[in-house]
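In the previous chapter we treated chains in isolation. Here, by contrast, the input contains three separate entities that must be folded as one system, with a combined length of 368 residues.
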Amino acid sequence: MNALIDTASWILLAGGALFSVIGGIGMLRMPDFYTRMHAASVTDTAGMILMLAGLMLQAGLTLVTAKLVFVMLFLLITSPTATHALARAALEDGIEPQVDHDKR
Amino acid sequence: MMFLVAIIAIVVTMLLILVRALLGPTVYDRILAINLFGTKTVLFVAVLGFLNGRPEFLDLGLIYALINFIGTVTVLKFMQYGDLGWEAASKEKPDV
Amino acid sequence: MRYLLGLIIGAATLWLLLSGVYKPIVLGLGGFSVLFCAYVCHRMGIVDRESVPLHLLARLPLYALWLGGEIAKSNWDVAKRIVLPERRISPTIVRLRAHQSSELGQAIFANSITLTPGTVTVALRSGDAIVHAITEDNATDMEGGDMDQRVRRLERPFGAPARREETP
């Protein structure tokens, strides 16, 4: 049982590590600011959730897990808010997205 | 062992993000990069706590997450209005 | 009153889970700060349906589960587009109508869009959301209005009958 939990936690941590690096690569590869935000959100959601879930499995049913849940909730609420504020500020500053289809 | 792998991945991501922060080209790219760097720092602190067997580090991570968010919004507000005061902000645009 | 009580219970739970030290003096300080915060919030007049959304609690877990599934799917999709060698993105901007009745519902809708990788709400003005999507497919998915429907169901008062589309 213990080995099983350890393996699951290992897989989650490795998955989180993978997604977080992919997001980092996307930050460099994507062509303009708005598409980079999508890459950033890969790191912010998948990387963060998987990694914290892996840590939760390590901690078991303790207060540490409760704290991990709070960290996750805070990040899940604040990160889209910050991204939205950023996107809106950029658009109002006149940074036009390079788009293939504009259906505004 | 597994924590070490996670830490290395986080540090690699942070380096990639720092490159983007240095390259720019717009100031918003830099803010995006720094915001992301902040969330990575939260993860880094959390995993480091487990690596050292001291999960109390999570409290620092929690505080860091909040400060990071407030910091990002503050910088954006300052850039948009050139001021952090209520007066300038409330004139036409109600929120950031 | 209901909302004030909800705030106090929520804050007390937060304190108990985060502190982890259950000595009388620490618990006393916790109780004091919870009550003091509740008093200050009450005096500021910000304890209402919007800041303590009790009516969402019952339906929130199901919505969170569905949103988690969406996040997983789109993460996989965006990650593939980042890693695969040729450029497979077609950035698109669409205007969506947020049909939620309250501002809280619209904010949840916009935040859910932003949280899902591949779509970001760029602006939200008087019920119109401008969304930047990384591919045209993502944008057409959003125009399908599934998420909009689900958030509307989420914010419906508990026990109220299910109303169908009344799109103007």
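Residues 57-155 of chain C form one domain. The helical segments of chain C are 2-19, 24-44, 60-83, 103-115, 136-143, 146-155. Compare these points with the single-chain example from earlier in the chapter.
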